[in-house]
Structure formats: structure tokens, C-alpha cells
Specification:
Chain C: InterPro entries: NAD(P)H_OxRDtase_bac/plastid (IPR023043), NADH_UbQ/plastoQ_OxRdtase_su3 (IPR000440), NDAH_ubi_oxred_su3_sf (IPR038430). The complex is a heterotrimer of chains A (about 170), B (about 400) and C (about 120). Chain A has about 170 residues and is an all-alpha fold. Chain A has six helices and no strands. With about 120 residues, chain C is an all-alpha fold. Chain C is built from three helices and no strands. In chain C, helix 2 packs antiparallel against helix 3. The chains are: A mainly alpha (about 170), B mainly alpha (about 400), C mainly alpha (about 120). Chains B and C meet through helix 3, helix 5, helix 7, helix 11 and helix 13 of B and helix 1, helix 2 and helix 3 of C.
């Protein structure tokens, strides 16, 4: 049990616990804050995989943008400060069964994969995969088309979001 | 002689050598060495704030044609110490209904986010906390983490004015993060690496502020807006929203927000000096590392001086003016800048460095001039369309036409 | 690379512990005399009127949304910028094309009034 495994276990436990608290917190603002902790846990797991770029991007985009967006949208609803009582849904037994089945299927598929039992290799000290990522993103044999399609997707998301939000604003003020 | 040339590096080497000689397993030596380094850096940064507070108060005083603190000690240098002692002994007044966890975590997180920025900044050739290969993006990401502390403060205070102030502050911070991140792309393009030490070493021949002054300008303005200082400090202005997110804080918790703001201003000046002004680069800095540290401190203090000058002289922005500046001026300018610099850089790839720098400089100045002209055009268009004199003119002409007796 | 992150992890812990310790020490040194009037919520010196929350405008949400889109765009551009010095001209044009598509989206947002602060 070396240090890396301890760090991974801790990060995984923190993420799972926070995720459980997100869905069972009584006040929505608390749920949003537990979500932030879950996302930080995922960032630590990225670090154990030695992809520092994605760890930093996780913090920058998820915690710095998406969590704040979620908190703003939580604040937009009126009932955020109230305690909604018990969070138990009526059909929770069926939902738990489906979730357990799904988890078993995913773990089964993973166990059949050969990478599941190989140890992680630490990259050499001067390996900078960011340069390779950059070159792969724009090379025609690499991911050039998905790169451009990503920007189209972003513009589509922007237009969609503005259509919804600005319409509602005209409803409020018009 | 070795000690004089590089005191920090010498001490670090001696210390790690002594630790290794103690016979502990290698990983524990590593951890203890890193822990000591982190403790020294963090404590040094927090103690340095005392000097920063004195420097700023003296300078603001001089700008406003008065002395600033000069009673406590020669030139008032013990004034911040006295203030710190006072604030240590003030009572923590927690408002009723405050969420204990969020309310107490907010000042701690605010200071921690600023301290964490110091871990990747290179202080000289040999002294750097850690040379992370995504250093620049790490700096921006940790700044985003600091925004969470303001939301925690505003929401945890159980006060609707704190909440409003916190949301306006966070809206300002996230808006200005867009030109910050976009203009940070330019030094990355020029240096070819995201690591902060790599960016400093790429500025050996020419500082990036010469090659990309427009990017430096956008980065500087966005950084000042990110730390919430004048002229962007409407969220903590005493006359509006009564100090915003820290209404309900007292004692050292308030002091921690205060310390975080001052330290953030200095850290952001240091980041600007590192990324655009060449960091520890200077004549003789590569051979004599301590000279590099001196250069970095000089450059940082020049930038910090400009920050304080902004605070002392410029009037405060209204929030819609601030948002207009960000979304309608800085963001389009930074988008156009990246595209222009990318194309120009691609076209001048084969030319020697001198001509490349001249080409970049010309493109930047061109874009700045175009932005200036566009801003003047839109300003004149605005004043032409809504003349405030028209209704007044009507009143005057009608009153003289019909006389006073009607 | 993991050594770097170990340092950052240790530094983060130190950076969290320091202000926490200082606040704790000051908590011991300071007087504690809770009083219902002192602890009441601040509202310019008068009693609070209305409930303790306000509904925020939708403009905050629209700004956060536009910020998110541009944040993801900038993050996708960072690997391209790192590899910039080694890229041939057509790869640079690809990056500029990426930005141009987003400029179109930005202009749409501007015209639709999503960037106004009411």
C-alpha cells in the first residue's frame, strides 16, 4: 500500500461521501457546496493519474464555472432557504435495485479489461504530454475535426441558453 | 562566496543534505523538506503583508497630500503591527442564524486561496516552490477557487445585503476571468509552455510586454478587477451595500479578508511581473541567483505602486460600466488579439526574432488604436442621440411663449 | 510530476491550517459577551424588514452561462497555444477558425442583449 494508493482511496472516499450528501442534503445550498467537494475529489483523482492539465481544468471549469452556475440557479428559485424535510422518495427500493444492477454491470465490464490489474507506471520526469495533446488536437490525423465541432457545439449551447434565458427576461420585464 | 551568491539555494541545499544525513527513509525526507519549504513560504508571505499595509497607507496618504501613519515608530512602520494587535483582541460577533460552517470557512478559504498562488511562482533561478508544468492555468484556477469563499461568506452571513453584495462580487469576478484567461493565452503562445518558470526563461532576450503590450494591458486590467480593488471595488465600498459580503464579520475573521485582499494585490503584481516583465530575468541574474530575486522584487513593487496609484486616483466604476468594459471592450479585443497574433506569428515564423517582435508589437498597437477609435465613435454616437438639453429647451421656449400667468 | 503535486497538496494544507490557527488563537484572546441585539442581522441599524433572502435577477445566471462557454473555449485553446511554436500554418488556421466560430456566437449574444446589465 504505497502513498499513491492511500491518496487515491482518500480522494475516492471523499468524493463518494460528498456525492451521497449532495443527493440527501436537506437544503439546496448545502447540496451545491457538497457538489464542490465532490468535484475537488475528482480533481485529486486526476492528479493521481498524472494528468495535471485535466486536474487544473477540472478545478477551473467545474469548480470555477459550473459550481457557480449551479449556485446561481439555486438562488434563482425562491424556496432555496427552506428545509424540505425528509428526502426519501416513495420508490426508493426500485431505484436502489436498478443502481446496484448498473454498478455490477459496469464493474463486470471493467474486470474483463486487462488494464484493470496492471499497476500505474510513473511517467519520466521530463515527459510533457501537454505538447503532444496540443499537436494531436489540430493534426488532421488526430482530433482536428472534433476540435472544430467542439466549437460549433459551444456556440450551439450559447445560442440555446440565450434563447431560453432572454425569453424569460422579456416575460419578466415585458 | 557561494552563500552570498545564492543564500536561499544554499540554505535549501544544506538543509536537505542535513535531513538526508539523519537516516530517515527517502520519502519522509522529501515530505519534511517540502513541509518546511511550504511553512517558510506561507509564513513569509503572511508576515510580509504587515509591510504591504504600511506601504499602501503611506503611499495613499502622500497621494492625498497628507502624511499617512507617522506616530507609531519612525515613519509609522509599527502602525500595522498595532492594528494587528488590536484586531486580535476584538470579539467575534456571529449573527443569529448564520450557517456556522460556511461563515467560519469563508475567511480561511479566502486566505488559503491567495497563499496557494505563491507555491508556483519562481523567486529566482534556483528558488521556486514547485515547477508545475501547468503553472499558469493553476494560478487562474486557484483564483476561481477564491470566488467560492465570497459566496460562502455572503450566504453564510444570513443577511440579504451580504448575499446581494457577494453575488454582485462573484458576477464581477467571473466576468473578468474571461479576458484574463484569454489574454493569458498570448504569453503561452510566445513561450510555448504553461509552466511559469518556462515563461520566465523564455523572456531571456525580450520581455513579453514589449512583444504583446495589448495582452499585458488586458491582463493587468482584468487582474485588478479580479482582486476587487479600485476602480473596481464597488462591492466593498462603504457607501454602497455597506461593505458587501463582510458586513457580518468582526475581529480577526474580518482581518483575514483584509489580509487576503492586500496579499492578493501583491501576488497579482508578482504574477504580472513574472509573466510579462521577465520575472527574475535581468543582467547577471542567471549566474547570481540572489540578484534575480532583487530584480523580481523591484519589478513587483513597480507594478504594485501602479496598482496603488489606480486606487488613489481613479473614481469608482458603476457596475453596468464595469460589465460594459468587460464584455464589450476587453473580451472582443482579446479574441481579436489572439487571432491576429496567431496569424502574424505563423507568417513570420522564419524571420529572426527581432523582426518577429516588431511584427507582434505593430499588430498590438494597431489593435489598441482600433479599439480606441471604436470606443470614441460609440461614445460620440451615444452623446449625439440622447441630448439632455432637449426637454429643457422645450420648457424654456414654452414658458417664454405663453408667459407666467397661464 | 507527482512530487510537484505532493508539494502543492502539502502547501494547500499549510495554507488552510495557518489562518485557521490564527483565527482560533484570536478566538481565545478575545472577549465573548453575546448579546441578542449585537447578534441581530445588520440592516443599516434598523430592524430587518421582510424575510432574510432576496431573489436575484436572471442577469446573473446569463452572465455565468456566457462565462462558462468562454471558459471552456479558452481551456480547449490552451493545448493549441502550448504547441503553437511547433505547428505548421494550417494548424494555426484551424485554431483561428475555432476562435472565429466562437466570435460568431459572441456577436449573437451581444445582439440578443445577453451582455447587458439591467
Amino acid at each position: 500500500m504505497n502513498g499513491l494508493q492511500v491518496v487515491f482511496l482518500l480522494a475516492a472516499l471523499v468524493s463518494l461521501f460528498s456525492a451521497a450528501m449532495v443527493v440527501s442534503a436537506r437544503r439546496m445550498m448545502h447540496a451545491a457546496l457538497w457538489l464542490v467537494l465532490t468535484l475537488m475529489g475528482v480533481a485529486v483523482i486526476f492528479v493521481t493519474l498524472q494528468s495535471s492539465f485535466f486536474a487544473v481544468v477540472q478545478v477551473l471549469v467545474y469548480v470555477g464555472a459550473i459550481a457557480i452556475l449551479i449556485i446561481f440557479s439555486v438562488m434563482l428559485t425562491r424556496r432555496v432557504m427552506e428545509d424540505h424535510g425528509d428526502q426519501i422518495l416513495p420508490g426508493w427500493r426500485a431505484a436502489g435495485l436498478v443502481a446496484g444492477l448498473l454498478f455490477a454491470i459496469i464493474v463486470g465490464f471493467l474486470a474483463l479489461w486487462q488494464g484493470f490489474t496492471t499497476m500505474l507506471v510513473e511517467l519520466p520526469a521530463d515527459a510533457d504530454n501537454l505538447l503532444d495533446l496540443g499537436q494531436a488536437l489540430v493534426s488532421p490525423q488526430g482530433y482536428a475535426l472534433p476540435f472544430e465541432l467542439a466549437s460549433v457545439l459551444l456556440v450551439a449551447a450559447l445560442i440555446g441558453a440565450i434563447t431560453i434565458a432572454v425569453d424569460r427576461k422579456e416575460d419578466q420585464h415585458g | 562566496m557561494d552563500f552570498l551568491r545564492d543564500p536561499f539555494g544554499f540554505v535549501i541545499q544544506e538543509y536537505t543534505g542535513w535531513l538526508g544525513g539523519l537516516g530517515l527513509p527517502a520519502v519522509w525526507v522529501d515530505i519534511i523538506a517540502k513541509l518546511t519549504g511550504a511553512l517558510v513560504l506561507a509564513t513569509g508571505a503572511m508576515l510580509f503583508v504587515v509591510f504591504l499595509i504600511w506601504y499602501e497607507r503611506k503611499l495613499i496618504g502622500r497621494i492625498q497630500d497628507r502624511f499617512g501613519p507617522n506616530r507609531v515608530g519612525p515613519w509609522g512602520i509599527f502602525q500595522p503591527v498595532a492594528d494587528m494587535l488590536k484586531i486580535f483582541t476584538k470579539e467575534y460577533i456571529t449573527p443569529i442564524g448564520a450557517d456556522k460552517f460556511a461563515y467560519n470557512l469563508a475567511p480561511i478559504l479566502a486566505v488559503a486561496a491567495v497563499l496557494l498562488l505563491w507555491s508556483v511562482l519562481p523567486l529566482s533561478v534556483t528558488v521556486v516552490g514547485t515547477d508545475l508544468n501547468v503553472g499558469l492555468l493553476f494560478l487562474v484556477a486557484v483564483g476561481g477557487l477564491g470566488e467560492m469563499s465570497y459566496i460562502l461568506a455572503g450566504w453564510g452571513s444570513n443577511n440579504k445585503y451580504a448575499l446581494l453584495g457577494a453575488f454582485r462580487l462573484v458576477a464581477q469576478l467571473i466576468s473578468y476571468e474571461v479576458p484574463l484567461v484569454l489574454s493569458a493565452l498570448v504569453p503561452v503562445m510566445l513561450a510555448g509552455t504553461l509552466s511559469v518558470n518556462g515563461i520566465v526563461q523564455a523572456q531571456e532576450s525580450v520581455w513579453f510586454i514589449v512583444a504583446a503590450p495589448a495582452a499585458a494591458l488586458i491582463f493587468f486590467i482584468a487582474s485588478i478587477a479580479e482582486i476587487g480593488r479600485s476602480p473596481f471595488d464597488l462591492i466593498e465600498a462603504e457607501s454602497e451595500l455597506v461593505a458587501g459580503y463582510n458586513i457580518e464579520y468582526s475581529g480577526l475573521k474580518f482581518g483575514m479578508f483584509f489580509v487576503a485582499e492586500f496579499l492578493h494585490a501583491f501576488t497579482v503584481s508578482m504574477i504580472f511581473a513574472t509573466v510579462f516583465l521577465g520575472g527574475w530575468q535581468g543582467p547577471g541574474a542567471a549566474e547570481i541567483p540572489v540578484l534575480g530575486f532583487v530584480y523580481l522584487m523591484l519589478k513587483t513593487f513597480v507594478v504594485y505602486f501602479v496598482t496603488i496609484l489606480f486606487r488613489g486616483t481613479l473614481p469608482r466604476f458603476r457596475i453596468d460600466q464595469m460589465m460594459n468594459l468587460n464584455w464589450k471592450v476587453l473580451t472582443p479585443l482579446s479574441l481579436a488579439l489572439i487571432m491576429a497574433m496567431a496569424i502574424v506569428g505563423g507568417l513570420t515564423r522564419e524571420l529572426p526574432v527581432f523582426w518577429q517582435v516588431i511584427a507582434f508589437l505593430l499588430v498590438n498597437l494597431l489593435l489598441l488604436g482600433a479599439t480606441d477609435q471604436l470606443m470614441r465613435l460609440s461614445q460620440s454616437r451615444k452623446t449625439k442621440s440622447n441630448l439632455p438639453m432637449q426637454p429643457l429647451r422645450k420648457v424654456l421656449t414654452t414658458s417664454t411663449k405663453h408667459g407666467a400667468g397661464e | 510530476m507527482l512530487g510537484n503535486w505532493l508539494y502543492i497538496g502539502i502547501f494547500a494544507l499549510v495554507a488552510l491550517m495557518m489562518p485557521a490557527l490564527t483565527i482560533f488563537i484570536a478566538g481565545i484572546l478575545s472577549p465573548k459577551r453575546p448579546d441578542p441585539i449585537k447578534n441581530s442581522t445588520y440592516e443599516c441599524g434598523v430592524e430587518t424588514v421582510g424575510p432574510n433572502w432576496t431573489q436575484i435577477k436572471i442577469q446573473y445566471y446569463v452572465f455565468a452561462l456566457v462565462f462558462l462557454i468562454f471558459d471552456v473555449e479558452a481551456v480547449l485553446l490552451f493545448p493549441w497555444a502550448v504547441a503553437y511554436q511547433l505547428l505548421p500554418l494550417y494548424a494555426i488556421i484551424e485554431g483561428v477558425l475555432f476562435l472565429l466560430i466562437l466570435v460568431v456566437g459572441f456577436l449573437y449574444a451581444w445582439r440578443k442583449g445577453a451582455l447587458e446589465w439591467f
